[in-house]
Design a protein that fits this description.
Elements: H1 2-18, E1 28-30, E2 34-39, E3 46-52, E4 59-64, E5 70-72, E6 77-80, E7 91-99, E8 105-117, E9 130-136, E10 153-161, E11 172-182, E12 192-195, E13 204-208, E14 217-221, E15 231-233, E16 238-241, E17 252-260, E18 271-278, E19 292-297, E20 305-308, E21 325-332, E22 341-343, E23 349-352, E24 364-372, E25 377-387, E26 395-396, E27 400-407, E28 415-422, E29 435-440, E30 447-451, E31 457-462, E32 473-481, E33 497-505, E34 512-513, E35 517-523, E36 531-534, E37 537-538, E38 545-550, E39 557-559, E40 565-568, E41 579-588, E42 595-605, E43 613-614, E44 621-624, E45 632-638, E46 651-654, E47 663-667, E48 672-677, E49 686-694, E50 702-712, E51 714-715, E52 718-719, H2 732-778
Parallel strand pairs: 1-3, 2-8, 9-11, 12-18, 19-25, 27-33, 35-42, 44-50
Antiparallel strand pairs: 3-6, 4-7, 5-6, 7-8, 10-11, 13-16, 14-17, 15-16, 17-18, 20-23, 21-24, 22-23, 24-25, 26-28, 28-31, 29-32, 30-31, 32-33, 34-37, 36-40, 38-41, 39-40, 41-42, 43-45, 45-48, 46-49, 47-48, 49-50, 51-52
Amino acid sequence: MMLQAQLHCLCLFTLYLTTGYGQEGKFSGPLKPMTFSIFEGQGPSQIIFQFKASPLAVTFKLTGETDDIFQIQPDGLLYHNKALDRETRAVHKLQVSALDADGNTVEGPVPITIEVKDINDNRPVFLQPKYEGSVRQNSRPGSQELDPLKNPSYKLVVSVEDMGGQNDHSFSDSTSVDIMVKENIWKAPEPVEIEENSTNPYPIKITQVQWNDPGALYSLVDKEKPSKFPFSINQEGVIYVTQPLDREEKDAYVFYAVAKDEHGKPLAFPLQIQVKVKDINDNPPTCPSAVTVLEVQENEQIGSSIGTLIAHDMDEENTINSVLGYRIVDQTPKVPRDGLFLVQSYSGTFQLAVQSLRKRDTPQYNLTVEVSDKDFKTLCFVQINIIDINDQIPIFEKPDYGNLTLPEDTAIGTVILTIQATDADEPHTGSSKILYRITQGDSEGRLEIETDPETNTGYVKVKKPLDFEAVAIHNIVFQAENPEPLVLGVQYNASSSATFRLIVTDVNEAPQFSQQVYQGKVSEDVAKGTKVGNVTAKDPEGLDISYSLRGDKRGWLKIDPVTGEIFSVAPLDREAESLYRVQVVATEVGGSSLSSMAQFHLTLMDVNDNPPRLAKEYTGLFFCHPPKVPESLIFEATDDDQQSFRGRHFTFSLGSESLQKDWEVSKINGTHASLSTKHTGFEERVYHIPVRINDGGRPPLEGTVSLPVTFCKCVEDRCFQPAGHMPGIPTVGVTVGVLLTTFLVIGIILAVVFFQIKKNKGQHNVESAQASEVKPLRN
């Protein structure tokens, strides 16, 4: 026994050396909580880890779920001496303590977790050597081909393999399975026919469904969800109709039978139940309307079809219940005799039976027709109107309506003549109504004729302007006709025609332009004298025409008075007016000097003739002084040219190279740029920064703008200046000076006034004294 222990220690020591354990690193370290994963089935004496403890510790102690498998050497070497089994214990919870020479704990206990990793060391095993089962024919998806008559049973061998069968070291097991195929009784029944309006007591059994096993819960489902569902099913699968059915209301029903288990889960596919409602003859024929009106001309031949009475029957079509028969039972009046009409027995078509009809005998016949099926009869009423035939032609009251003279400026719509024809056919019918038309003398359609439907009077009106220069005399021929065709053998003749002579007199008319608005289009930079358009007018009398312009408010155009050509006479400016409108006047030369006017619109196309400028006035640009960091501001450019000309793509640069050490201009987009400072050493004053803006047009134009930028002391992000230094507000010293000057001026004014008063007073005293001296002399 002692020798065996020595050999074990020797082997462990050899493994300890060959595997590198005991070296600081992956497999050794201080005593602390740790977790190790070890595959089950490994051989004994496998080293796990070597713990290092403080110098006071001389040995180690292992406790916990060791299962006599895990041990630790005095030097801290942890190992297991038996193979691990995950199925016995998957995790081992251990504690390691470090002890001194007296057996006292100096470190720990520290938890150590051993996780046993699984290896495929157990084969799958079936619970029994043989299994038996059954399946119903057509009871589940995929079992449709099973037929108990052909193959009542199947013997299967089922294998199972672990690890998914993807490894050479996987295990497997097999067993036999005997399957019995049973007939599936869950089948859709044959379509059912139910006679409508049955008098049998309800409910009435119509069919049955049955699940393969007892205990199924049955229900019916109708996907159409009707307001009333006349079917039910009991828990034996018997399906009933619960009330009388009406084929004319609904001739067929399709719904489904469902079988569920006690938990409400469907056991199989729903079965479709089809019910056809069988017709009985329970509907009488109905007339299409209260009275069916037919028409026949008075000259129709015997046997001619007059029309058809179409009655209806709501019973099933193309069955004996809906076959209808027709029979005339009464004719009113019976003149010139009874039996003038017959009706086809099954089509309802009416024909003339014995002779042609005459309207003067009677204009209308009323027939009573019996319509019947095999059980019911209905009376329908037919009215046959006799229509007069168009055997009379219209006749004019006079063949010639003489001559009429009109000026060519007669207003459109003026009635110039009244004509009249008569027709002997029945009044207010297509046979007697008269339509007038002009067959000769008005090829351009300058006249029209309106007919009064009550009197057949024709009113000849001016439809288009008369034109002496085109046709001075119109020899008109009128034709009177009926909208209803004439009967065979009757034709229109000279009595249906009349003549009329229209003489058009000349009226001096103003010139006429070929169009009312003339268009021109040129670039705005065309040279003076460029032709920009042309107008044309003609005088109906053939006089010469002189052209002139009106409304040329800018003085841009002139017109050749003879040719009508229009020229530019001054620089054009699209930015001032892009569509320039003037009036062109055409005046007769000689005669009554009549004139007419048309419009001339000149569209000016843009050219790049405006340099860029600032989009607005920038007067409040400032930076706070002293600046702490370089700053920037944004400005916008524009010009007056058409935007679509180039899409607004400006370039920006400083106007002076000497400013580049202090300022920088950067383009933001086609219209905006930023002005930035490059340092913070600016004085407190206003800087005027020139910026060049180029539009990149054809040709390119460039403009230089000045941006005033103020560096000022700021309070609340606004420029601040003391009140004594603000422009327009005097300082205290200035105010005192102004006041002193004002007082001085007032003193001078007062002294002058006082001196003048004193002087005037002295002069008055001298004059008084002189007066006193003279007075005694007068005495």
